Amino acid sequence: MEFTASSANLLNIKADSLILATGSQLQNSAADLDKSLDGAISSLIKAGDFGGKSGETLVIHIPGAAGKRIILLGTEGASTPQKQINVINAGANALLKTPSSKAVWVGEGLSDDSEWEASIVARSIKAASYKYAPQPKMVKKSKPAKLKTLATNMPPSPKWSKNPNQPNLKPCATGPAAKPMPMPPKKA
User: Fold this and answer.
1) CATH says 2-132+139-182 is which class?
2) What is the tens place of the pLDDT at every residue in 104-119?
3) How many CB atoms lie within 10 A of CB 100?
4) Which sign, positive or negative, has the C-alpha torsion 55, 125, 123, 133?
5) Residue 36 backbone phi and psi in degrees, to 5
6) Is residue 98 classed as helix, strand or coil in its secondary structure?
7) Cα→Cα distances 117→5, 22, 86, 111, Å
8) Contact indicator for 128, 100 with CB cutoff of 8 Å
């Protein structure tokens, strides 16, 4: 499975699934996406189909785009790291129940630390897709997971945008534990 980072405009992303972490009050990317969908997400909230509670999920299909879906993931009440991990686990499980091969995780609205959140998302997807087979000859062959690519689309972490004392570091989100990598020194 491939994990990547993206800062592309959500309205231009081509993926099978878009995981949107949000509460009942749509903000930032969730509000923009709702507006582009003529209020489809806010209508579901008003109708009571999605309340935005911590760990609640709802899969909706995007009108006009066959096979595309949005997985709404509730974040209200996820105020501690453990509750945020539980929300991410719920989103990972909901995603793996779909036939998606390419997905984008929108990380606004859950954690203030996008680096930490991206690493937990990758870990949760890997853990949720694991299948134990004690004796391969005695167990039916299971179908391999369809999900091949997961991109995280998150705002920059405050520690990257507000730390002028570390000009030689950049975020690197190519693996399950996105860590800063030192950049090579500039040649004079």
Assistant:
1) alpha beta
2) 998 887 888 888 999 9
3) 24
4) positive
5) -70, -20
6) coil
7) 12, 14, 12, 6
8) no
Mean pLDDT along residues 6-14: 80
∠ CA 90-24-74, rounded to 5°: 5
Q: What is the dihedral of CA 137, 140, 141, 142, to 10 degrees?
A: -140
**Assigned token pair, 135:** 């004796």
pTM (2 decimals)? 0.75
Q: How far apart are CA 132 and CA 119, in angstroms?
A: 23
pLDDT over 60 at 163, yes or no: no
181-182 and 169-170 strand pairing: antiparallel
Q: Where are the domains of the chain?
A: 2-132+139-182
Burial profile 53-76: b = 16 or more Cβ within 10 angstroms, e = fewer: ebbbbbebebeeeeebbbbbbbbb
